From TrEMBL:
Residues 12-110 form the Cyclic nucleotide-binding domain. Keywords: CBS domain, Repeat. This is Signaling protein with a cAMP-binding, CBS domains and predicted nucleotidyltransferase domain. SMART domains: CBS. Residues 154-210, 218-275 form the CBS domain. PANTHER family: CBS DOMAIN AND CYCLIC NUCLEOTIDE-REGULATED NUCLEOTIDYLTRANSFERASE, CBS DOMAIN-CONTAINING PROTEIN CBSX2, CHLOROPLASTIC. The lineage of its organism: Bacteria, Pseudomonadati, Pseudomonadota, Gammaproteobacteria, Alteromonadales.
Length: 612
C-alpha cells in the first residue's frame, strides 16, 4: 500500500512493527488541504496527529509568529495530544497538499503498544527540531548519573503559589520554606517561576511596592523538564537557557517539583562541572595539561548520551575558557599580578562558543593606555605562556598567528580600533578574512567593562555600508554544493566524494548572520544569539530568520556527530559523504543548503550594491 510505504520512511512510524503500521494506516483518513480549508480541517479533526504527505504549510503560533515550516514527512498536532490542551496554532498554506489524520484514540493505542513511538513524541514535545531523534548508542552500558530520571532526585513536593499572590506573601513563603525559587501555578498548570533574583532585580531595584502581584514580575512560561526524562536532559536545558532553577512537570504539564543546578552538582561524578572544576583546581602547568588530556575522551563519552550534540560546542568553549583563565592565574602566581588593566579576548569559534575538538586558537589582548616597556613585556610573556599552554592542552596554534603571543594581537583600544577602521575602509581580501574572525569576539578574563566599551566601538565601525557591501560580495562568491535538480555537488578527496559542511554550510550561515548583525550594530558573538536578536529586524523576515537558525542547528549537530565518529581516523573532520546519511538526513541537508542559497541571494540584493 502506498501510504504504508510512505510511513516506513517517516519517523516514528518507522519504529513500529509491520503489523502496527498496517493497523495505523487503517485508522487514518486522507484529506486535501489548501489555503481555504486547512485551519477548518485542523480544528474539526483535533485532537489528532497530522502527517504531511505533500504540500508546504507554515505552522503559526497564537501571536502569528512562525513555529515551524511543515513539509513532506513532518508531523504536527502532537502537543495537544500529549497535554490535552486545545490547539491554538494556525496553518498557513504555502503549497496545497495531502495530509494524513490519525485520531487520538489510535494515537494513544500506538503509544501504549510502542515505547519508541511514545518516546519520539515526548522528546519532540515543545521543541522545533530540524534533525531526527537521536537513538540510544549501542555499547554504552556503564552506569552514569545522567541516566537517572529527574523524578528520582526531586528533593521535595512542589511548593507553589497563584499568580495573583503579592510579592510580600511570596517572599514570606520562600523564606519559611528555605527556597530561592517558587513555582507559579494557576488552575493546576505551570504559568511561571519566581526567584530571589526576580524579587531583587524586578521589585526592589525598580522601587516597586511589595503589594505588586507575582504575575507582574515572574518569568512567564519558563523552560521545564518532564519528570520521566533524564538528568542529562535537565542539564542540557539549564545550560542551553542559562537557568539554575528548572520546573519539573508530568505529561499533562502539571508541576511535580523543581530541580536546581545544585541538585545536579550533587549527582555529578565525571561530567562538565566536575571536569571544569578539576581544571580550576590544577596548581601547576603539568597538572593542568594532564587534566586537559582527558577532554577528547570525555567529550566522546559525553556525546554518546547527550540528546543535542550542539551543546558540545558551548561546552568545548567553556573548557577552553577555563584553561585560559587557569593559565593566567598560574602565570600571575609566578610573575605577580597584572601591572595594568587588560582583557583577554576570544575570537572566531571560541568567541562564538561553537568550538570543536579540531578548532584552533584565535585570541588576543586588549590593553590599557600608556603602558611602560616593562608592563608591555609582562603582557608579552603572558600571551606566550597561555598560548603555548593551550597548545600543550590540545588546542592547536592558529596557522594565521591570530594569538595573543603575536604582538599584532596585543594592543590598546585605540590601536585595535584603528585596525578595524583600516579593515573596513580598505576591505582587501585579507582584511575581509580578518574581519570574519575578529568581529566575533568575547571577553574571557580581565576587565569586562573595558571589553564592553571596546565592543560597542567595534560595532559602530562595523556599520560601514561600503564594508558590509564587500562582505556581502565575498559571501556570494561561495557556491552552495547543490547542482541541477538539487543534486549534491561533492568534491573528490582521498577518502571519496565528500561535502565540506563547515565551509559550505556552517561558516556561510555564520557569515550571513554576521552581515545582518553588523548592519544592526549587535554585539553578541554567538550565531544563535545573533539570530535571536534579529527577531524584529526589518531586513530579514521571521520565516527566513527561523529557517537560518534551524539550518545552523542541523548542520552543527551533523558536523559534531560526524567528527565524533571519525575522530581517531584519517577521515576528513568537516567533510561528509552524503550517501552515508539516512533518507531523512539527506533531505534535511538539501533543505539546509537551499535555505543558505536563498539567504545568500538575500544579502546580495540588500547589501552588495554598496561594495566595489
Amino acid at each position: 500500500m502506498d501510504i504504508e510505504r510512505f510511513l516506513t520512511d517517516c519517523p516514528p512510524f518507522d519504529d513500529l512493527t509491520e503489523q502496527q503500521r498496517t493497523w495505523s494506516v487503517n485508522q487514518m483518513q486522507s484529506t486535501y488541504m489548501n489555503a481555504d480549508n486547512c485551519n477548518e480541517i485542523m480544528r474539526d479533526c483535533s485532537p489528532a496527529l497530522f502527517i504531511v504527505r505533500s504540500g508546504v504549510f507554515d505552522l503559526k503560533g497564537k501571536d502569528g509568529t512562525l513555529v515551524e515550516r511543515l513539509e513532506q514527512g513532518d508531523l504536527f498536532g502532537y502537543p495537544s495530544l500529549l497535554s490535552g490542551r486545545a490547539i491554538v496554532n494556525t496553518l498557513q498554506c504555502i503549497e496545497d497538499g495531502i495530509v494524513y489524520v490519525l485520531p487520538q484514540v489510535a494515537f494513544d493505542k500506538l503509544r501504549n503498544q510502542s515505547r519508541a513511538f511514545e518516546r519520539y513524541f515526548i522528546n519532540a514535545h515543545g521543541e522545533r527540531l530540524l534533525t531526527e531523534r537521536r537513538g540510544k548508542t549501542a555499547g554504552y552500558d556503564d552506569y552514569d548519573w545522567t541516566e537517572q530520571r529527574v523524578e528520582d532526585v526531586i528533593q521535595r513536593a512542589p511548593i507553589s503559589l497563584a499568580s495573583d499572590t503579592t510579592i510580600q506573601n511570596a517572599a514570606q513563603c520562600m523564606s519559611e520554606n528555605g527556597i530561592s525559587s517558587i513555582l507559579v501555578v494557576d488552575s493546576d498548570q505551570l504559568v511561571g517561576i519566581l526567584t530571589d533574583r526576580d524579587i531583587r532585580n524586578r521589585v526592589v531595584a525598580q522601587g516597586l511596592g511589595f503589594n505588586v502581584t507575582v504575575a507582574a514580575v515572574m518569568t512567564h512560561l519558563p523552560e521545564f523538564v518532564f519528570a520521566h526524562r533524564s538528568l542529562l536532559d535537565a542539564l542540557t536545558t539549564m545550560t542551553a537557557n542559562n537557568v539554575h532553577h528548572l520546573p519539573v512537570v508530568d505529561e499533562q504539564l502539571r508541576p511535580v517539583g523543581m530541580i536546581t543546578a545544585t541538585d545536579l552538582i550533587k549527582q555529578q561524578r565525571s561530567e562538565p562541572v566536575y571536569l571544569i572544576s578539576s581544571i580550576y583546581k590544577s596548581t601547576t602547568r603539568a597538572q593542568l595539561v594532564e587534566e586537559a588530556q582527558k577532554i577528547p575522551q570525555y567529550l566522546n563519552s559525553f556525546a554518546l548520551r547527550v540528546k543535542q550534540t550542539a551543546i558540545l560546542g558551548r561546552l568545548m568553549a567553556s573548557l577552553t575558557d577555563a584553561m585560559t583563565r587557569q593559565f593566567i592565574k598560574l602565570f600571575e602566581a609566578e610573575n605577580g599580578a597584572a601591572p595594568a588593566r587588560y582583557c583577554w579576548l576570544a575570537f572566531g569559534s571560541q568567541g562564538r562558543e561553537d568550538q570543536t575538538l579540531s578548532s584552533d586558537q584565535d585570541n588576543g589582548l586588549l590593553l590599557a593606555d600608556g603602558l611602560t616597556e616593562s608592563q608591555l613585556d609582562w603582557f608579552r610573556r603572558l600571551g606566550e605562556y597561555v598560548c603555548e599552554g593551550l597548545h600543550d592542552c590540545g588546542v592547536p596554534l592558529c596557522p594565521g598567528n591570530i594569538m595573543a603571543s603575536n604582538p599584532e594581537c596585543r594592543g590598546t583600544q585605540q590601536q585595535w580600533l584603528a585596525r578595524f577602521e583600516r579593515w573596513t575602509t580598505h576591505p582587501t581580501p585579507k582584511a575581509l578574512m580578518y574581519c570574519q574572525i575578529f568581529f566575533d569576539s568575547r571577553a574571557v578574563a580581565g576587565q569586562q567593562k573595558m571589553f564592553n566599551q571596546f565592543r560597542e566601538a567595534v560595532a559602530d565601525i562595523g556599520k560601514n555600508e561600503f564594508f558590509i557591501g564587500n562582505l556581502a560580495l565575498l559571501v556570494n562568491r561561495i557556491s552552495v554544493p547543490l547542482g541541477l535538480f538539487n543534486r549534491f555537488r561533492t568534491e573528490d578527496v582521498k577518502q571519496g566524494e565528500r561535502i565540506d559542511i563547515k565551509r559550505y554550510g556552517i561558516a556561510l550561515i555564520n557569515d550571513i548572520v554576521r552581515l545582518y548583525s553588523l548592519h544592526q550594530g549587535l554585539t553578541e558573538p554567538a550565531t544563535a544569539q545573533r539570530i535571536e536578536r534579529l527577531q524584529n529586524s526589518r531586513l530579514i523576515s521571521e520565516r527566513d530568520r527561523q529557517s537560518l537558525l534551524e539550518a545552523w542547528q542541523f548542520l552543527t549537530q551533523l558536523r559534531l556527530d560526524h567528527q565524533l565518529r571519525v575522530w581517531h581516523t584519517d577521515e576528513p573532520k568537516n567533510a561528509i559523504d552524503p550517501d552515508s546519511l539516512s533518507t531523512l538526513s539527506r533531505r534535511q541537508l538539501k533543505t539546509a543548503f537551499k535555505i543558505i542559497k536563498q539567504a545568500q541571494q538575500g544579502v546580495g540584493l540588500k547589501f552588495s550594491r554598496q561594495g566595489y
